[in-house]
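Task card 7
Instruction: Convert sequence to structure tokens.
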Amino acid sequence: MRAVEARITALLLLAIGAVVGATYWLAFRGGPLNGWDLLRGAMIVAGTSSCVALGIVALLHEMRRFRHQMLEQAREWVLATGAAPVNAPRDPELKPFITPLRDRIAELTAKAENLQVQKKNLEIQLRLADAQRRQSQIMIHGISDAVIITDAFDELLQSNQSAASLFGFDEHDAVRKPISQLLAGGSDKSGSRLAADISEMRQNYARLNRRSSEYVFEIDGVQRTYSVTLSCVMDNADQFSGVVTMLHDRTRENEINKMKTDFVSHVSHELRTPLSSIKAYAELLVDGEAADDKTRLEFYHIIQAEAERLSRLIDNILNISRIESGMTKVTRKSVSLNEVLKQVLEVAMPSAREKQIALVDNTTQVFHTVDADRDMIYQAALNLLSNAIKYTPAGGTVRISLASDEAANELTVLVTDTGVGIPPDAMKHLFEKFFRVEQHKNMAKGSGLGLNLTRQIIEGIHKGRMIVSSEVGKGSTFGFALPIAA
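Output:
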């Protein structure tokens, strides 16, 4: 670059000398010099020299600026590529920069590549964590029990719809909110007590890792029992991470357990009554208490009646159990209800005559049939007619009717009596196992299984419907409706 500047300077000096010589030549071309000519020549030389000097200065400035641009471009290229360009200016001033820049660029390039690998690894880990989070959310939402997950600050991390419905919060808007605030929105104070237990579990995680207890929550005015399990969650460094709370609704299970207990208790009581009678009269016969044939015959009849009662009770229990477990064998065929009811009336007639009850047949001839198990329909109709006779005082009337409703596509059987009627508070318990109206227990013997079995046959197996209406002191109407066979 300096050689180029020297050559340009020499050319400029030659140009200046030529200009000066030309100026003198012009000044003296016309004759001898005078003062004015000398002055004019000096002014021309001064002006020309000034212009040439200014041009030289400007040219040198432009050359320095060009060289500076070339240096900057070379530095930028070296920083970008790490190698000297093929056509880069080979100025000695660039040499001290190239080696350090190449080393620095190589170091930065290695760091950049390392950061790029770390970035890809972090992206993979992030995608895996996101996939695991989504999978855990799907699993939590697939659980029917209520699930609440809180962090180390007693704030909600995750929950499912069951928990949101139980405590009345939005599962999406509730994230990162204090659990005490969310659970306090319940209908009673049990939610606040649960929030306090979660906080206590967090504080004592080193001593307690799992805890189970029972809570009672009031939902829509109904108390429901929940089994609650609190579990601490630890991270990979064995540090406390949060608490998982699971609430399992045990209300139905408790009801079933109570029903089982009551069932066993009722069965034991019902079996004991006829067995006690059979045992007592058998002992009287063995001890010779029946001295004459008439007394012995009476004892025999009592033992036979109680044995039949015991047999009916066992049959009813077994039938109900089979129906509820789905093990009953159902033989469906086209059944005429007129024929079934005629047979039922013939079987029930002796009992009605014994109590001096008028048994009236109000059935109409129906040509439609039902697709049903004939023996089961016979059992259901006989149960209703027998109950009507049992709970109707002497001199009363029991009517049985059959009608078809083509608009509703069903046949309806009704048994109406003029008996004692059923109190309103007992109506909702009529079809429960072993239920008997307390005021009517002395009117007739029974196990309280007949109506339950009838309902199982009509509604459970044949998809029909039961019909009940009653008025105390005026009588009751029991019946059922079955779909007409296609």
